[in-house]
């Protein structure tokens, strides 16, 4: 099939929408973040890429942050956290906050899955900082677990696509990873 050249800002794959928490100058703050990914397996690490925001100050100050996975019922509050800056708006009472062992990583009780992260590395990019955090603790509601592991359908997260800036719900199960291609592997 023939291809046509388009704008190179063509990130169409959905990204999980999360709430990143930090403590900035002693006050809890949360920011909506769509650029998030698992980046290491052992120890488990997660990467978040954020521009120059109020939240960065808290992450840099404390060497810690949280990644909270909201269910779709928190879409409005999550979007709000991306619309207003913690530098001008106090978002500390928007959620029921709790802590694990990392005092600089506030966690959200309403989010079905929460991770407290210690900063492993901060990479300054032209427009963003990529924070790589080691997941020190993870907390989940029992109702969103299947066989002791987070279940994406039960969590019911929402995703972000760019550059069209839309939210999407997770679709149907399509197949088992590292399994579906086994028949082709035997044929080739």
Observed structural traits:
188 residues, mainly beta, 7-stranded antiparallel beta sheet, 3-stranded antiparallel beta sheet, 14 strands, 39% strand, globular
Helix and strand topology:
Blueprint lengths: L14 E2 L1 E7 L2 E7 L2 E5 L4 E6 L3 H9 L1 E6 L5 H9 L13 E2 L8 E2 L4 E12 L4 E12 L4 E2 L2 E2 L1 H4 L2 E4 L4 E4 L12 H6 L1
Structural notes for this entry:
The chain has a seven-stranded antiparallel β-sheet. The radius of gyration is 18 Å and the shape is globular. It is mainly beta and 188 residues long. The protein has helices at 54-62, 75-83, 152-155, 182-187, and strands at 15-16, 18-24, 27-33, 36-40, 45-50, 64-69, 97-98, 107-108, 113-124, 129-140, 145-146, 149-150, 158-161, 166-169. Helix content is 15%, strand content 39%. It has four helices and 14 strands.
Quick synopsis:
With 188 residues, the chain is mainly beta.
**Proportion in helices:** 10-25%
> Which ranges are low-confidence, i.e. pLDDT below 50, for 5 or more consecutive residues?
none
- How many strands appear in the DSSP assignment? 14
Question: What is the terminal-to-terminal distance?
Answer: 24 Å
H-E order: EEEEEHEHEEEEEEHEEH
**Total number of helices:** 4
Q: Provide the residue-averaged pLDDT.
A: 94
**Strand portion:** 35-45%
Strand order of the largest sheet: 3-2-6-9-10-5-4
Rg, rounded, reads: 18 Å
């Amino acid at each position: 099939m023939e291809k046509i050249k388009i704008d190179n800002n063509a990130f169409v794959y959905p990204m999980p929408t999360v709430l990143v928490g930090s403590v900035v100058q002693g006050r809890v703050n949360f920011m909506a973040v769509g650029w998030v990914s698992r980046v290491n397996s052992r120890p488990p690490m997660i990467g978040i890429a954020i521009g120059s925001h109020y939240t960065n100050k808290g992450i840099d100050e404390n060497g810690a942050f949280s990644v909270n996975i909201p269910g779709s019922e928190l879409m409005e509050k999550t979007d709000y956290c991306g619309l207003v800056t913690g530098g001008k708006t106090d978002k500390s009472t928007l959620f029921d906050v709790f802590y694990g062992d990392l005092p600089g990583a506030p966690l959200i009780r309403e989010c079905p899955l929460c991770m407290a992260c210690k900063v492993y590395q901060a990479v300054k990019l032209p427009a963003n900082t990529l924070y790589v955090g080691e997941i020190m603790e993870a907390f989940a509601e029992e109702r969103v677990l299947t066989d002791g592991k987070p279940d994406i359908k039960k969590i019911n997260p929402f995703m972000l696509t760019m550059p069209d800036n839309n939210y999407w719900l997770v679709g149907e199960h399509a197949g088992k990873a590292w399994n579906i291609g086994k028949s082709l592997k035997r044929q080739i």
